[in-house]
């Protein structure tokens, strides 16, 4: 039987530990909106949608945030330099259990003047502060793909990725983009090798760069993910601050969402206006606190660390 007091006390201690860590490093805790007009453009994410209704009947399409990233970057553009937030985020079409819950807690933090390598260092220091002292190795995505899938991402094309998928018996769809094919290979051949390992995986292909700046050669995004015993824990970047490039990426993602039949949200023009005011380099990281709770305390499922998991809330109807 679940020990509710134990879970609540563990989470309280983790949250207090997080706050103590960042306050000791002169970060400012901030609050960001959960209900927004542009909840996210990533093609692989599905926001929860709703409407904001005014007394006069006027309705505004809105969504629950998949991440506080846009709002946090706006604060950086307004002159804040070291900020963090602990907030609820929401992602639809997720499993109800395992390592997924449609509503979960996210820690997100940013620092002006440092890049993604410094962010990896700080992430490891945070885990150590919270009691995780195991070694964490670091690998470039290119090196892991070369070893596990036999593909050199330096010169891989969509055709290369598609051919490799077919050779390995991995299902492909005619509508697959280069990003889709990369992700299929990643899920089938690369990610399963992370079981039992702790590692930072960094320098993702340009088409996986998301909101990150690019490496000097322009081939890769300055992005990393952290895996603890095979569980993905966070996603960090050296942040892209070029508004023209960011608009281009938003438009590419909007086209991909449209192709997939997913809702396309308005581009956040305020974010684009403020991006150039953010000094380079700047890093940011988004870390799932529920999964952090799991790995710190040895739980195997996300529902084990939640007082009200979705698989209890929505499976009795």
Describe this structure in words.
The protein is an alpha+beta fold. It has one domain: 2-Layer Sandwich (BirA Bifunctional Protein, domain 2), CATH 3.30.930. The chain is 35% helix and 22% strand. It is built from ten helices and eleven strands. It has helices at residues 4-24, 69-77, 116-129, 141-149, 158-167, 178-190, 243-259, 269-274, 289-297, 310-313, and strands at residues 28-29, 35-36, 49-53, 59-64, 82-90, 103-112, 137-140, 198-205, 220-228, 231-238, 282-288. The strands form two sheets. Strands 1-5-6-11-10-9-8-7 form an eight-stranded mixed sheet, sandwiched between helices. Strands 2-4-3 form a three-stranded antiparallel sheet, with no helix packed on it. The radius of gyration is 20 Å and the shape is globular.
Task: Write a compact overview of the structure shown.
The chain has ten helices and eleven strands.
Topology, please?
Blueprint: H1 4-24, E1 28-29, E2 35-36, E3 49-53, E4 59-64, H2 69-77, E5 82-90, E6 103-112, H3 116-129, E7 137-140, H4 141-149, H5 158-167, H6 178-190, E8 198-205, E9 220-228, E10 231-238, H7 243-259, H8 269-274, E11 282-288, H9 289-297, H10 310-313
Parallel strand pairs: 1-5, 7-8
Antiparallel strand pairs: 2-4, 3-4, 5-6, 6-11, 8-9, 9-10, 10-11
Domain Aminoacyl-transfer RNA synthetases class-II family profile: 1-309
Pfam family, one: tRNA-synt_2
Keywords: ATP-binding, Ligase, Nucleotide-binding
CATH H-level name... which superfamily?
Bira Bifunctional Protein, Domain 2
Question: How many independent structural domains?
Answer: 1
**Mean of residue pLDDT?**
95
Helices, by number, come to 10
**What shape does the CA trace take?**
globular
């Amino acid at each position: 039987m679940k020990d509710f007091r134990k879970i609540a006390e563990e989470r309280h201690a983790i949250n207090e530990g997080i706050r103590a860590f960042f306050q000791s490093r002169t970060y400012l805790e901030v609050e960001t909106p959960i209900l927004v007009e542009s909840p996210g453009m990533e093609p692989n994410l599905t926001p929860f949608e709703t409407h904001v209704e005014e007394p006069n009947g006027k309705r505004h399409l809105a969504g629950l945030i998949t991440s506080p990233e846009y709002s946090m970057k706006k604060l950086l553009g307004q002159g804040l330099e070291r900020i963090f937030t602990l907030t609820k985020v929401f992602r639809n079409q997720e499993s109800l259990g395992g390592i997924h819950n449609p509503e979960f807690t996210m820690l997100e933090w940013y620092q002006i003047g440092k890049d993604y390598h410094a962010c990896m260092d700080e992430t490891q220091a945070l885990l150590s502060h919270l009691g995780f002292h195991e070694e964490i190795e670091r690998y470039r995505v290119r090196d892991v793909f070369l070893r596990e899938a036999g593909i050199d991402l330096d010169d891989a094309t969509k055709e290369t990725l598609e051919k490799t998928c077919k050779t390995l018996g991995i299902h492909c769809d005619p509508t697959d983009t280069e990003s889709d094919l990369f992700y299929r290979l990643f899920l089938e051949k690369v990610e399963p090798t992370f079981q039992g390992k702790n590692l930072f995986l960094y320098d993702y292909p340009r088409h996986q760069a998301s909101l990150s700046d690019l490496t000097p050669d322009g081939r890769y995004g300055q992005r990393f993910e952290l895996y603890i015993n095979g569980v993905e824990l966070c996603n960090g970047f050296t942040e892209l601050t070029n508004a023209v490039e960011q608009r281009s990426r938003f438009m590419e993602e909007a086209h991909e969402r449209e192709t997939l039949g997913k809702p396309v949200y308005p581009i956040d023009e305020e974010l684009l206006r403020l991006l150039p005011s953010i000094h380079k380099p700047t890093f940011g990281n988004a870390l799932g606190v529920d999964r952090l709770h799991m790995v710190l305390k040895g739980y195997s499922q996300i529902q084990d660390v939640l007082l009200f998991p979705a698989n209890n809330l929505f499976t009795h109807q």
